[in-house]
Amino acid sequence: MFIAANWKMNLDKFSISEFCKNLHNYKFSPKVEACIFPSMPYMDYLNNLIKNLPISVGGQNCHYKPDGPFTGEVSPKFLVDNGCEYVIIGHSERRINGNESNNEIKLRAQLAVNSKLKVILCVGENATDREKGHALKFIEKQLLECLPNDFKSLIVAYEPVWSIGTGRIPNAFDINEMHMHIKKIVLNKSNKKIKVLYGGSVNVENINSILKITNVDGVLVGGASLKVKDFLAIYSAAVKHLNSSL
Questions:
Q1: Secondary structure element (H or E) that encloses residue 105, with its range
Q2: For the segment 97-154, what is each residue's pLDDT rounded down to a tens digit?
Q3: 212: which residues sit within 8 A by CB, 6+ positions away?
Q4: How far is it, in rounded angstroms, from Cα 96 to Cα 25?
Q5: What angle do CA 159, 198, 151 make, to 5 degrees?
Q6: What stretches in the chain show pLDDT beneath 50?
Q7: What distances in angstroms separate CA 94 from CA 30, 61, 100, 245, one per listed residue?
């Protein structure tokens, strides 16, 4: 089970320090892996605060070149230098606001893999594709065009664009169907089994019902991960779910 906390462009140094104080009083489980993705300037700062905790630090994005004249971008080498273990590639906000194409995302994912980072590759359809019944085909196209050519392990995060920040999520049938679809596509293309996280308006109210859905291997959490109480409640729900399923 995997809990990924994407802080996006939130939490300054003081807020991160206060957040981490509470983490040291919590007993984490070896059964649930957690990774926090802070804003780029605070990766090393966060890593130093939680270095004795079983929580990884990740980057919210990386470039498709290891170095060069790319103002404002970050090399995957720099993420590794700052203690990052994971990187998010292809988040819908990057696709939309940064105009990142599927091909560019594939290049970013491949360089991240080559740089020994563990990739969380995001895919997700918009409301129109979902309403017209095109969601499965849309995600298949995204995956086939974004998957790196060579990887030992990969995590895919299914985040329907229409769900992010809206409070609306797909029903259990649709989530299970999509996660099963994603696993099948990746298995057929790469002969590898992967984990699939659900993301999009995940919170303390719906986490239990989401984790009960077949083929959900964890969650990618946005806004609900900014408060340590909510982050730990979501983590605890994952531990409880695993213990109850034994």
A1: helix 102-114
A2: 999 999 999 999 999 999 999 999 999 999 999 999 999 999 999 999 999 998 998 9
A3: 172, 241
A4: 39
A5: 85
A6: none
A7: 32, 8, 6, 36
**Half-sphere exposure of residue 86: CA atoms within 13 angstroms, side-chain side:** 26
Q: Please tell me the distance from the alpha carbon of residue 64 to that of residue 111, in angstroms, as a whole number.
A: 6
The type of residue at 241 is H
Contacts of 52 (CB under 8 A, 6+ apart): 24
Instruction: Name the one residue in this structure whose structure tokens are 């273990």.
Output: 85
Q: Dig out the tokens for 212 from the structure.
A: 């009960």
Judge contact between 207 and 244, C-beta under 8 A: no
**Cα–Cα dist 67/12, whole Å:** 27
Q: Which residues are catalytic?
A: 91, 159
Rounded to 5 degrees, what are φ and ψ at 171? -75, 170
DSSP label at residue 176? H
**Amino acid at position 177, single letter:** E
Closest CA to 154 of 124, 179, 117, 115: 117
CA end-to-end span of the chain, whole Å? 13
Q: Which two tokens stand for residue 118?
A: 């563990």
Which among 200, 118, 188, 116 is positioned nearest to 157, based on CA atoms? 200
